[in-house]
Input
Amino acid sequence: MSSEFKNPVIRWIDHRLPVFTMMEHSAVTYPTPKNLNYWWNFGSLAGIVLVVMILSGIFLAMNYTPHTSLAFDSVERIMRDVNYGWLLRYLHMNGASMFFVVVYIHIFRGMYYGSYKDPRELLWIIGVLIFLTMMATAFVGYTLPWGQMSFWGATVITNLFSVVPIVGDYIVQWLWGGFSVDNPTLNRFFALHYLLPFVIFALVALHLVALHQHKSNNPTGVEIKGDRDTIPFHPYYTVKDAFGLGVFLLIYLGFTFFAPNFFGEPDNYVAANPLVTPAHIVPEWYFLPFYAMLRSVPDNFIDAWGILPIIISAKAAGVCIMFGSIILLMFLPWLDTSKVRSANFRPVYKWAFWLFLFNYILLGYIGGQPPEGAMLTIGRVSTFWYFFHLLVVVPFLGKYERTLPLPESISAAVMAKESK
Amino acid sequence: MKTTLFAALIAGALAFPAVTNASEGPKLPAQKWSFDGPTGHFDRAQMKRGWQVFKSVCAACHSAHQLYYRNLVELGFSEAEAKQIAAGDNVPAGPNEAGETHVDGQPIMRPAQPSDKIAPPYANPAAARAANNGALPPDLSLITKARKGGADYVHAILTGYKEPPAGFQLQAGMNYNEYFAGHQIAMPAPLVEGAITFEDGTNATVDQMAKDVSAFLTWAAEPELEERKRMGIKILAFLLVFTALLFALKRRIWSDVH
Output
């Protein structure tokens, strides 16, 4: 194996530590379906954003002070007096938003093309775990600048854990390291914010191991059947990913340089003040759909069930719904029983998918509005539909949908498309 | 078609922050600023006028905690001028040889230096409240980033003082302002026509002063703005060409895939 390398130094190393063989297998000769469209760019993009976040974050951490009386000013010092500190900080801020944009597209791509199905269930579940860890990382990270939204966002979200029966209040105090969000909270959040990205990194490694076991899914959803269906990763997908990265950077850096606070809340440029509550406490945009679900359970709805209020409050129900919405995603491979992967050959599921996506974006919009009047009603219907889609529509379609005939193979599909 | 739909939906998702929390007050009148747009820059003459307004009006009650006197050089002042401006203010001197910071309960003071932060008008928030009828004048160094609308908002507040409409219950010591949330603001109208004489001879109307100080406060909040936009243009121009080349390369490499 190692004799393939011409360079004697590389050959010497590879004979003892086969890292070059490994790279050759997983990034050069790695057989990849020849028909991947641009929606398949977002996996590698997410990996690149993770690296950008870790690098910019390490340099920010060198200049940041995790103390309630110094944190806000230390961030401003980064913005003003650290060489290119403003660039590091704006890259990191906008990088977080871009990470979620890229990962959301990656997740919905997987849903459309059925990438979670046998034999890729664990690949999907590890992906959901990455998404959960990203959310935790983003949440603790948003606390660090110690602005008004940092403080009040942290207060609202940590308080969610108080709904755990009996030990809830103890859990919250344990998270805080005290009796309110304060200096111990900031300290541990900083430690966690440095730790969690490396947990994500490890999960991404597992994600890749699982991916390379059965290779990429593709727009037809038909498995690779032979050499005619694949092309080597390099140069075909390295150049395609590089081009995608260029387009992505134009957007990412466009925001970073020309609208760096587009995704932010003005309130976070006001130093945290435990005595002044902002008019609207709004999480970062990528949490808004879940925020809408959290606020969707009405008090009187719970009361109407008589016995339920003793067991579960409206707040507890909201928290269960919010976390349940993500946990449920892990079961998607078994909820969807259709043998056909790609929505291209599932005429009804295709529409259900677009409705689900629209509904999710609608939830995000509702999450950013004050929870009252029509907004609350729409939010409740939307929350219902999120669960109805996953628990009823998907299993039902898996059983009864009449799917279209699948192409014989990937290469047959490509040929048919070209002869048209 | 589907791709476009998807892209449109994602773009819609991205626009969330822009549509959340519709402002409570009337729409802010949009002003023309030299720092708008991708090639925006700060107008140095306006910066100096803005500093003059800030120093002689705002700074009587508001701090600018993030600014140092040395930063004034970026506005077009010479180092000697920045030194001179600093020397006009007093800051706590710190412990003397006897280890004392206060004499007779009063802090020992010394003239400020360029390396000092701009001297705040009050020793602490409690003193600020005591002097302002219980209201705390906010720190202004980040105000254009800390309010929706930025410089437009600051300008609107400064020019938005009006007689309250009939039937409006104005609390004692409060002032009516069209653009302030709830319309009741503790700050009395700070700008009066001709209250200061601009060193460059510009006519000191309320609108002019409001514009100049809003521009100055934008610089105070985003001193990196000019460098950021200049660098951004270069980098995006490079990326545009590089990405186009990558696209050509991609098409060429893929031309043998069937």
